[in-house]
Design a protein that fits this description.
The protein contains 4 helices and 6 strands. By secondary structure, the chain is of the alpha+beta class. Strands 1-6-2-3-4-5 form a 6-stranded antiparallel β-sheet. Helix 1 (19-28) crosses helix 3 (55-66). The mean pLDDT is 92.
């Protein structure tokens, strides 16, 4: 896919460094598909990690394009550790997520943190809507942590009435400028 197919949105009413600008940039990338080779993306190219899983590169790219400083999370366990070290981590069991939080995931069959996304909406029922890179869209078969698309996903961090499986282990909370 050509890099210019999903450009950063033009300057908007949302100032650089704000949660709204971060979400605006992340949302603008929904629909991006890797390729032509497996895990080949503009996000990985920017961070020197092309041809590797790119969920973290997507999150870092969105932050940089939006003027939001976040810990390098290209390697997801290191991103979570950086938020913990900075005192900006919230465990899922006690979380009250906010838009712009960075959600860290563990999916069945994998040990430890293996995926990352950006909280867009807290549904206030134990679930959130996230913008994620390198996942698989609704209704499609494929990996949730290496699926090749930037998608909007419904995810859970607590037991919920929607019966969405719990996959979020915690959240990093960036310090927004505005």
């Amino acid at each position: 896919m050509a890099t210019n197919d999903f450009p950063t949105p033009a300057e908007s009413k949302f100032p650089a460094g704000s949660v709204n600008r971060f979400l605006e940039v992340a949302k603008s990338q929904i629909g991006y598909i890797e390729g032509p080779k497996d895990n080949e993306t503009k996000y990985g190219k920017k961070y020197g990690t092309n041809f590797q899983p790119w969920c973290g590169a997507y999150v870092n790219w969105c932050g940089e394009e939006a003027g939001v400083k976040i810990p390098k999370t290209v390697y997801t366990p290191a991103g979570a550790a950086a938020f913990k070290k900075a005192g900006q981590w919230i465990d899922a069991q006690v979380a009250d997520p906010e838009p712009g939080d960075i959600a860290y995931f563990n999916f069945p069959g994998v040990s430890g943190i293996c995926h990352v996304g950006i909280v867009a909406i807290d549904n206030e029922d134990g679930t959130v809507i996230c913008y994620e890179g390198n996942t698989t869209g609704d209704g499609k078969k494929g990996s949730q942590r290496n699926g090749g698309e930037a998608c909007r996903q419904l995810r859970a961090f607590k037991k919920n009435s929607k019966k969405v499986p719990i996959s979020i282990v915690g959240f990093g909370r960036p310090k927004f400028k505005v």
